[in-house]
Amino acid sequence: MRNALGLMLMSVVAAATIAGTWLLTAAPHRHSAKAESVAAAPPTSPAPTRSAARVDAPEFTGSISDPQAAATPAQPKPACANPDALGLSRVVEVDTSGGPGFGFEHFKQFDFLADKEVVLTFDDGPWPGNTPAVLKALADECTKAVFFSIGKHASYHPEILKAVAAAGHTIGTHTWSHVNLNAKKMTEQLAKDEIEKGNSAVKLALGTAPAPFFRFPELQHSPTAMAYLGTRNIAMFSADLDSFDFRAKNADQIVTTVMSKLDKQGKGIILMHDFQKHTAEALPALLRRLKEGGYKIVLMRAKTPMQTLAEYDEAMLKEMKLPVAATRPVSSVIQTVAR
Ligand SMILES: [Zn+2]
Fold first, then answer.
1. Is 218:27 a contact under the CB 8 Å cutoff?
2. Tell me: the pLDDT tens digits for 3-60?
3. Which is the most buried residue in 9, 123, 177, 249, by most CB within 10 A?
4. Ligand 1: distance of its center to the CA of 237 in Å?
């Protein structure tokens, strides 16, 4: 049994590694991709149904109170152990009704950050080694971020995604398998499946619904998928500032890129990848530089959790189902019969 289980685990790890490698090697160059998506969906013109369907802005609060802490006063959160930490300046709550878009690379409607304010976002996790390292760097600086998880990766490493949630970060979704939803051969149904499978997989991995926050793989904004997300009341996240960490040669390069762009722009939603080793390595120094530069971290949260679709929850439950033996109590599988 152990050998069989070992083999199974190895094949899962191998599959995960292949998937990860595929992500790195098969992803088209982002610059050329971006030009296409701009042509398909001009940044200043929202998707057809969105402009008609919604005119109300998301609600933001400046409160840094933690509803969970308020609900359980007997267990206050431990104070930050680092007196010089970057910390968290404020928490904003997003009303995702109608699917508002954020990040000036593609969405210009909601300019909610003050000068020197920064939102940290991380895509493509959870991933062993790199995601825990990102979590540690954030914890060391007592600060919070938004993570856009790939459904497949969440299904491989639910325990890492749970650790992200337990640390108080916001978790959004990033499709099931990181396909380009704006590709020519992509159909409306396939795009819906990718989005909803990702949503349900992340929910299953977490054991609770994520935030209704979504980021398009490679920032490839398909107009029809945008319209669909609007009907699903899921907010869309582009970025104000791309770290291009996935092509950085080392950690230093990421720190330099982010800080020089930030010093020019003054604020913004920063796009990074907890999937990337160099990003995990860069984060402690980057967070220090943000602190030294007088930047303040803002955490985006959702007003209400994501409503996943029951049909996809059921389908993903079957697809992600653990071996039957794992769901049985130990005593029903193995018992001491002699000492
Ligand atoms: Zn991605």
1. yes
2. 444 444 444 444 444 444 333 333 433 433 333 333 333 333 434 333 333 334 444 4
3. 123
4. 12
Separation of first and last alpha carbons in the chain: 22
Structural domain spans, the chain: 31-73+81-320
Q: Which pLDDT score, from 0 to 100, does residue 324 have? A: 47
22-60 as b/e, with b when 16 or more CB fall inside 10 Å? ebeeeeeebeebbebbeeebebeebbebbeeebeeebeb
pLDDT digits (tens, 9 = 90+) for 294-339: 999 999 999 999 999 999 999 999 987 755 445 556 677 787 888 8
d(CA 263, CA 138): 21
Backbone angles phi, psi at 168, to 5 degrees: 90, 10
Burial 220-245 (b: 16+ CB within 10 A, else e): bbbbbbbbbbbebbbbbbbbbbbbbb
- Residue 214 alpha carbon to ligand 1 centre in Å: 11
What's the CATH fold of domain 31-73+81-320? TIM Barrel (3.20.20)
Q: What spacing in Å lies between the alpha carbon of 320 and ligand 1's midpoint?
A: 21
For residue 319, how far is its CA from the centre of ligand 1 (angstroms)?
22
CA 276 to ligand 1 center in whole angstroms: 11
Q: How far apart, in whole angstroms, are the C-alpha atoms of residue 155 and residue 134?
A: 19
Residue 288 clears pLDDT 90, i.e. is over it: yes
Could you give the maximum distance between any two Cα atoms of the chain, in Å?
74
Task: Give CA–CA dist 181/221, Å, rounded.
Answer: 7
Half-sphere exposure in the Cβ direction for 233 (13 Å, CA): 15
Torsion sign, CA atoms 180, 185, 191, 193: negative
